[in-house]
């Protein structure tokens, strides 16, 4: 191989070494404490719950687990809602399938860019509905956590 060709190959190789690799995924952690006081309007029941979730910024995958206790009856529906600040209501954006409502709820969703933006901005809440409280029995604003 001629020295000129070898020099060209080395120059190209060196320039490729400084090209950044594809962005690595960042995992963002979320959590929430669900209770009746955060429902709009609030309820006086004893229901409580917790949500833990992770969001992958590259795959746009949201994985979540919700545990709840002391509801007035079986869960009839559960959803992530948004965009909404605390004290505001919004439409469901990620529903939980009807066959996955038993505690603990485990789920997975791939978010749109708009959904991801609202989630990252703290504009989502999660609530669990029952027959006695069809508008929602427990609710919690979804916030970023350290883990």
TrEMBL record:
Presence of the UniProt keyword Translocase in the record: no
Source domain of life: Bacteria
Signal sequence region: 1-25
Ranges for domain CHRD: 26-147
Transmembrane spans: none
Keywords, in A-Z order: Signal
Keyword Signal (UniProt): yes
Any one Pfam family match given in the protein's UniProt record, by short name: CHRD
InterPro entries with a match to the protein in the record: CHRD (IPR010895)
Name of this protein: CHRD domain-containing protein
Naturally occurring in which organism (per UniProt): Robbsia betulipollinis
């Amino acid at each position: 191989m001629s020295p000129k060709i070898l020099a060209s190959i080395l120059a190209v190789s060196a320039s490729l070494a400084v090209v950044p690799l594809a962005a690595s995924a960042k995992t963002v952690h979320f959590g929430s404490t669900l209770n009746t006081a955060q429902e709009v309007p609030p309820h006086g029941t004893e229901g409580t719950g917790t949500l833990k979730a992770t969001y992958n910024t590259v795959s746009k995958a949201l994985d979540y687990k919700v545990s709840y206790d002391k509801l007035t009856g079986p869960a009839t529906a559960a959803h992530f809602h948004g965009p909404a600040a605390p004290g505001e209501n919004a439409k469901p954006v990620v529903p939980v399938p009807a066959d996955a409502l038993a505690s603990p709820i485990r789920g997975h969703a791939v978010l749109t860019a708009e959904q991801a933006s609202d989630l990252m901005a703290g504009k989502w809440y999660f609530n669990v509905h029952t027959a006695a409280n069809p508008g929602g029995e427990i609710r919690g604003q979804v916030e970023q956590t350290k883990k």
